[in-house]
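The following block was generated as part of the benchmark described in Methods. Ligand: FE2/S2 (inorganic) cluster.
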Amino acid sequence: MTPIPDPHSDLSIELNADEAALLDELPQLQGVGQSRRDFMVASAVGGLGLFASNLLAKEAALAGMPLAADAAVATIKAQNVVQVALTINGSPQTLELDSRVVLLDALRERLGLTGSKKGCDQGQCGACTVIVNGERRLACLTLVASLEGGEVTTIEGLADGDRLHPMQAAFIKHDGFQCGYCTPGQICSAVGMLEEARRGDVSHVTGDVARPVHRLTDDEIRERMSGNICRCGAYPGIVAAVQEVHSGRQTAQTWQFATQAQLAAVRKEDDHAAV
Ligand code: FES
Ligand code: FES
């Protein structure tokens, strides 16, 4: 047991090793106006065991970690489980999960749909963008529990068999990516954004918000896609790809695969250099 001296109280508190360890893991309590001393006193009065179990259960559930076989933890786990029926990429799914699980984690960890990427996990980068009921949505900020009856489309669901979605093909044609990490989110966002524009939604750079925008300028595209960050800076290609799909105006591809003759010439030069 670890005795905790309390200079302001007559309460004599003793923590066992598990409780002392838990206390060390809770520095955030000090940041929300509750000192460690208050916490210890409250815990001593209210029963630290149950309080600790609750906190650990929540943390474990949110992290998707296996929970300890403890009666209090099991009760809390059971209280938080919800069943959600939804359609993902055209296939009906019924998921049973903790009510606090976000769509991004369910897609990646439960369903193996790892196309949607986790960048910031706090709504800042757009890497996790998917399409929910026809609108783009940040999967890292969307609770699965809020999607009962909903339709989710991820990057895996955009192509029609072997035929790429026009936006996917345009990204390849215009070299709209480098490392590709942001690309699934960029493409889902672009598809959803063009739908918004078709509906007549205005943006921050729309000149006259009283008139629907039918023709998106490059500035409109940049503004409407500004929630999707590309660390590689592939923005010129992204704008060109979105513009081509939006306008239907084909523009020339600026790169091409090397021919067999070109590859053979390069190999020959390498062989000469090595001799
Ligand atoms: S991972 Fe969702 S916005 Fe960054
Ligand atoms: S292509 Fe690398 S982050 Fe966008």
